[in-house]
Amino acid sequence: MKFTMQYGGGVLIALSMVMTACGGGGTPAPKGDPELGKAIYVQCSECHQPNENVEGPRHCGVVGRPAASIPDFEYSQAMRDSGLVWNEKTLDEFLTSPFTYVNGTKMGFAGLDNPKDRADVIAYLKQVSADPSICPQ
Known about the structure:
By secondary structure, the protein is an alpha+beta fold. The chain has helices at residues 18-21, 34-41, 77-81, 88-96, 98-101, 115-129, and strands spanning 2-7, 10-15. A hairpin with a 2-residue loop joins strand 1 and strand 2.
């Protein structure tokens, strides 16, 4: 989109930053690959399983679920007070640095630095949650 401004008698033509002004812009999130995510999720599997609580809460249905909402899991006070709803954005931000994103979380994992790795894990969690043989509704 172009717009013109008068500047000292001349016309300055500039490109507007519509994407940035509208909340877009930046680098789009990478598309996740659930098969790659499954391999990365192995790091999580000591504490998390899709369909059962272990050291951490089960992950079936995590996308779209409010944080700290599984009744048979004991969450940290920080997680209970977070007000988060897990979606692609909040999961990506949390998985970047859990300790920073929810100060006081019990999750003992430093995070995933690579945005593609996070996207892959999130894609895997979505795929698993949609599979009734793993996550019965």
